[in-house]
Amino acid sequence: MIIVISGPGGVGKGTVVARLVVDDPRLWLSRSWTTREPRPSEPADAYVFVDRPTFERNIAADGFLEHAEFLGQLYGTPFPYPAADQDVVLEIDVQGAEQVKQRDPGALLIFVDAPSRRIQRDRLLGRGDPPALVDERIETAEREVARARQLGAAFVVNDDLPTAVADIRALIDEARSHS
Ligand code: 5GP
Predict the structure, then answer these.
(1) How confident is the model at residue 83 (pLDDT cuts 50, 70, 90)?
(2) Fewer Cβ within 10 Å of end Cβ, the chain: N or C?
(3) Can you say how many angstroms the Cα of residue 94 is from the centroid of all Cα atoms in its chain?
(4) Burial (CB count <10 Å: 0-12, 13-18, 19+), residue 154
């Protein structure tokens, strides 16, 4: 099964996903490629950081399950992946979620949102994003919510981290029981 976790920047998706994967050996987390620069606060292996020509060559070689441009940077899920007998977790934007759903209608789509845009803004500023970029990400958030609703994603609010993780685990358990 493919499990897609989407949500606006600064909602804590990365933390939620890291918890999920540590606790469940049946989950395998894909590492995306991106053309954006690493953030100072970010581990070096958060993404495979590449330049645009390298990314575009991989598109041409059919090396992505999905890829999308988000705020001027390219992001993509490398394919094929090695997790034959595990459920694959993708932390990707809603454009990518839509592509995955088209390729695999059985994919589980989960949208993690912040309790409010004010809290999202504080989290983005707190991790050191420049204020202009924060404004862009906040504006993008409402469009992402609307798109995720159209796609039929399950919504989880990340107010309290353990609760959000438990909510997502329950969604995964339920989907597994049907697959
Ligand atoms: P950030 O720059 O904050 O790490 O990521 C920006 C957005 O790109 C987030 O919504 C994140 O989930 C998304 N993203 C990360 N990796 C991928 C990917 O491989 N494909 C797509 N479509 N989006 C991705």
Answers:
(1) low
(2) C
(3) 8
(4) middle
Residue 84 scores a pLDDT above 80: no
Question: Which residue in the block uniquely carries the two structure tokens 């993509």?
Answer: 76
Q: What's the DSSP call for residue 121?
A: H
Atom 4 in ligand 1: which residue has the minimum CA distance? 9
* Residue nearest atom 21 in ligand 1 by C-alpha distance: 92
Looking up tokens 């996903």 gives 17
Tokens of 84: 């034959």
Long-range Cβ contact pairs of 20-26 (< 8 A, separation 24 or more): 20/89, 20/165, 20/168, 20/169, 20/172, 21/89, 23/165, 23/169, 24/169, 24/172, 25/86, 26/86, 26/87
Domain residue limits, the chain? 2-177
Asked whether 75 lines ligand 1 (CB < 6 A), one says yes
Residue 70 CB less than 6 A away from ligand 1: yes
pLDDT at 131 over 70: yes
